[in-house]
Write a structure and sequence with these properties.
Order of helices and strands: EEHEHHEHHEH
Number of helices: 6
Distance between the termini: 58 Å
Radius of gyration: 19 Å
Largest sheet: 3 strands, antiparallel
Number of domains: 1
Protein name: DUF742 domain-containing protein
Structural class: mainly alpha
Strand content: 5-15%
InterPro entries: DUF742 (IPR007995)
Helix content: 40-55%
Number of strands: 5
Organism: Prauserella isguenensis
Amino acid sequence: MSTENGAGQPNRMRSKRIRPYALTGGRTKPRYDLLVETLISVPRYDPSLADSLMPESRRLYERARTRVSIAELSVSLGLPLGVIRVLVSDLAAQGAIYIHPTAYAYAHDRNVLERILDGLKRLPV
C-alpha cells in the first residue's frame, strides 16, 4: 500500500504505520505489564495452535520455544515493542506463553527484596 508524496516519490511510511495497527486490531495497551527485559517461553508447544495463529504471532510463538526477552523478540521479528507486547499478552491470555516474573513483579514483596539485598552483601567486592 504505497502512495505518492508531494514530490512524486512513493510513500512507504504509510504502510509501515498501518501494518502494526492491523496486527494488534488497533490495540496499543497489553493486558500485562511487559518490560523490555521480561522473559517469556512456551511451556507446552502445540503445533495445531501454531498453525491457527497469524504469521506474526506464529513466528513469536515459535521463537519463544526457547526463553527469550521482549526486546529480543522485537529485534528478531522486526516488529515494534508495542506490537510485541500486545501479541505476547494475547498468547499469554490463551495460556500459550508463560511470562516469567521480573524484579518489578516483586517490587513490593519485602521478603524477596531482603533476599536480594542479602545476596548482594555476600558478593565479593
